Amino acid sequence: MNELTSLYRHRQLIAALTARDLKARYRGSLLGFFWSLANPLLLLGVYTLVFTVFFPQHVVKGPYPLFLFAGILPWTFFSAAVLESTTSISSNAGLIKKVMFPAEALPLVVVSSHLVHFALAMPILLIATTAFAVAGKITMHATIALVPVLMILETLFVAGVAMTVASASVLFRDLRDIITNLMQLGFFVTPIIYLLDNITSRPLRALLRLNPMTPFIVSYQDILFFGHLPGISDSLLMVAYALASMALGFTVFERLRDVLAEAI
Amino acid sequence: MTGGAGGRGSGAGGDDETIVRTTGVDSTHPTPDPRPPTPKEHSFAIAVENVSKNYRLWGRRSQFATLKSALLKRDLKLDPDASVPALKHVSFAIDRGEAFGIIGRNGSGKSTLLKIISGILKPSSGRVTVVGRVAALIELGAGFHPEITGRENIYINGIMLGLTRREIDRRFDSIVEFSGIGPFIDQPVKTYSSGMYVRLGFAVAVHVDPDILLIDEVLSVGDEEFSQKCVAKIQEMKYRGVTLIFVTHQLDQVRTLCDRALWLDKGQPHAIGDPVRVVDQYLQEVAGNRMAGSEHRIGMDLPAPEAEPESANAAEQAPMRDPLEEERWGSGEVILKSVSLVDGKGRELVALGAGTAVSIEIDVEVRVPQDDFVFGIGIYHADGNCVYGTNTDLEGLVSKRLDRDGRVRFVMRSLDLVAGSYRVDAAVHMRNGRAFDYRRGCVRFVVGSRVHDVGVYRPQHEWLFDGGIAFDAVDTLKRDVPAPIAEYIRESESTPPPSKPNRRK
Prior knowledge:
Structural class of chain B: alpha/beta
CATH class of the domain at 325-505 in chain B: Mainly Beta
Shape of chain A: globular
Largest sheet of chain B: 6 strands, mixed
Mean pLDDT of chain A: 88
Oligomer: heterodimer
CATH topology of the domain at 325-505 in chain B: Coagulation Factor XIII, Chain A, domain 1
Number of strands of chain B: 19
Radius of gyration of chain A: 19 Å
Number of strands of chain A: 0
Helix content of chain A: over 70%
Strand order of the largest sheet of chain B: 6-7-8-4-9-10
């Protein structure tokens, strides 16, 4: 539990560095934070076009873009945070080598600044949902209120993964390229653009269930789009993945911490 | 340039309790010297015990093996061939409030040692104990982000150094004032000149109020004015009892600012102790190497009370050196056989009255004739402050010949010092500072005075009153001065000043 107390101690640092990252990223750019939305919106547009115009598919009952949006936002949070955390330590080599700096803050700053993007994008999804509801295409669901709970669980999971890859990629640089490619694959082996229940092949479905991001995405879709509570097994899996990921992240980081300054 | 300072292990709540950080692993080989007992009250600020550090040579191909080994064994050691020793069995202790200098050639392990003390690096073996909040000035402004303003960077840098937001609020104005950044404080740091950058970095770091300040070569940056400001600030911190550790190539700073110095050579302590002596030994070694051994050296065969480098041992080093203790070092081609303080009649003195005419007489023995030589004199107060120092070179005397024994006399018509104990350093050295014979504290004397005025220097003076101001005089000699000293004073007051002396050239 040492790690958690040190996290608490560094909360101001993490908050300050997150604010710095966000400010520095958007200072001088015209559209500011909306750039962080550009990628999910682009994905949204492309897949809506593909599945409604080029290859018309009946993926879900209801407006497909809303379904897509529910999965793309949490996925983007996960993939962008993990990918960026691979370079979080080496791009701050000056801090690690020259300052007594708590290295674990660096991946966590990446995670928290992507969490801010995610949280800022959420209202857009809610506005879109409200618009569709007003148009009478769907009904608003009370389960939307569970979004913060899911976000907390997902953040824990993402933070653990980020700490693991951040520290490991200092010693093993190829990890970044491996992860870049894995993320592209991951987008398709996670039920984001399709519905898990539509997969008829049982072995394939079992395989997709093994993907730790699956219960998270499915649960977001459950509460945001379908309006029912996440399944028991999905809920338990999410909690388990979040805790296991944190444990792994802290263990790996703790083991590598002492050599980081030297290995950078 | 980036730069900065840090404070892991400090942070919130660190103000009230004492912070003790011990890093290091148990030695893989048995410790040669027994571990000094840990003082209960932490009289030391830093204890370095048998610390070694090996750097790994990095191969691209062994990356995965490295990761595996680091994960499984928590260590980067793969095979000993692939490692470079940077520090070998270094031990010493630094007292609270001490100013400690670390000198040595490039690559001798100075910065590694500093990083290990600061906690940035972990020793390969040995142990480091640090008591108190540490700030490290290893690179000024490390962690500044170019895109955001100086104001925002002060907050972030301060938090990195272990301050809370509220603590920074309180220090903010003083930081800005010290940095001299002025209205630029609300501009992005990328618009700053490198000098402004460094100034802001230094300003934040010294406002952390550390118990221990580690400084790596940063005093040499910035313009002359700011450099002086830094040195003044550091002296102020020393005054307030902050423990200071310098790594520097500026040997003058070590001589003037430090209480002790450590000379690291190829990762090992070569000498530790009085900064003037250690710096001088270091200069001699550097100069000796430059002369490529063609010159026959007599070496350290002086009849000196102590002239060899002591091994750096934390336990034995613990007591502070008496600043008046006699020390002697030098290469020995020319020897100062005797140094004495004599009055106008040639009598040796140990106590004298203020304003007495005295000379310092030095008997010189020449073992190897020299043509580059300087004689120097320094007078120090008992507290270690230099009262006056000069040498023949400073005063425009160009060395011509020194081929046989002789005598040097340094004649003072009137030694205008206030009451106190003083010591004299005498030296003969080359113009580059390499000493033939340096005798620290070779003469000690006490100045008595019929009045208890304060300070160091007493200008020749008298009080004159006009108009309606009048005083009665009492004999201060009888009232304030102990009888034996009073005798000296009475005697010296009756001695006429000596005739003009002959200078020997």
